[in-house]
Structure formats: structure tokens, C-alpha cells
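Many introductory courses stop at the sequence. We go one step further.
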Amino acid sequence: MRALVTGSTGGIGEAIARRLAAAGNTVVLVGRDSERTDAARRRISAAVPGADLARELADLSLMAEVRALGTRLDPLPDIVISNAAVVAPLSATTAEGLRLTFATNHLAPYVLLRTLAARLGDGPARFVIVGAAPRALARVPVDLDDLESRDARALGPVPSFRPFAAYGRTKNMNAMFGYALARRLAGTRITVNGGHPGIVKQTGLGRHARGAFGVFTALLNPFVPGVDYGADTPAWLATASEVEGVTGSYFVHRKEVTTAPHTTDVARQDRLWDESAKLAGLPVAL
């Protein structure tokens, strides 16, 4: 099997790639920086002698590079794990004029998986979208009138927590997009599922944390497991026989769970799909 893992230069993504390589899969590491990507490749090769690894360079905050990645992949992957994510300052904007957190966390998987689904056609594949804790995300519904979270005050009263609230919204978008894509691919041999890796340390998501949120992150880290723990559910979804043919679901600790009503509402999913298509310059129809 050939697996593509985004955000695989460190953290959970690298741990997922290492697990998949140890299971005998060819793993394509996706990173934006050649030195970091090659360093991850060396670490995985040291841990898994004989690992079959390839690399693809793409800045997933730029939709032009995401489209190019999805278009040039050859051979096509049997497994795609969309893992790359950031918690960026609210003001951080990409060269294409989009807010960085929104572009990287939601629009990139939207464009990449749509592009690959179109190319795969009748071919089989498993798409896994790495999300976050459903219970926590229930408190941060997506604002469909402000997808990029440009209204900072709507993200809460504590400024240092607002970037994480914006991140939470994009993780809800991941769930909504996964459900919407699974519906549109019904009847094909492509399955789409979401999964929460758990609260883990060493992900790099808190590197921009400041103020009260920075203190909270520092206090939490000693009490949570590492990235290998976080890799378990996504890697299992990508390979386990127990979920063969299962699609349109969300998993925590390898168990199917129900996410918040604001993520399962089909009308909200479809509006997010349509607005994302406009922002990405794609047709609404898959």
C-alpha cells in the first residue's frame, strides 16, 4: 500500500508515518521544507530499517501548491492521512490573502482530497482526516459567516486563547468536510473518516502560545502522553480490517463517536462545502 501523510516532518504526522512504514507500507512524507522533511525521513529510516519512504514538498497554506501536489502524485496513494495543522496568530495571512490557520487546517485538505478523489475515480482508497476532541469542539461551532475567524472578539474574552478557538473552529470544519465528502463519494471505493488523536504533547501546535494560553499549555504537557499515542487511531483507520468499507464516521480511541449537532447538520455541511469551493476556486460539484 502507498500512504501519503501531510504534516509528517514531526509530531503526530511523523509518528503516523513511522507506524505505517513499520507495517510495510510505502510512505510519502509531505512537508514544506526540504531539510525538515529529509530529517524526518532519516529518523524514520533509523527507527524502521529498510523503510520505503518518499517525499513531496508543498506549502499546504498555499492552495496553488496543494493543487499542484494533488495533480502530480504518481502513483496515486491508497491511503491519505490529512494531518497537517497549525495554531497561528490570528493576524497571520498567507501570500494568497487567506488566514493561515484556516488555509492550512481546512482549505488544504478540502482541496487536496477533492483533487485526489477526482483522480482516483473508481479506484479504492482510504482518506483519514485528523481532527480534535469532539466534546471540546462542541463549544466552538463554525461561524459560516466568518469562516476565517476575522472577528477576533467572537472567539472569546481572553486574547491569548483566541488563536486556539480559531483552530478549534477549523477542526470542526474537518469533521463537517469529512461527512460532506463521504456523502458525495457514496457508492465509490473511497472511504472518508475522521479521528481524534487524543490530547498529546510534542505536536508543535503550541509554539505560538502566549499569555494565559501559554501558561495553560506548559502546565498541561507533563500530564499528557506523547505523539506515538496520538498516532494510534489515525494509523488504525488507515489500515485496520475492522473499518474496511466504513465511511462518514468519526472515531476516538478506535471507537466510533457522534460529534456535535452543528457538525452533523447537512445544511451546514453543504454551506461550508460551497463557500470553501468559492475560496479555493473550485466548482461546487465534486
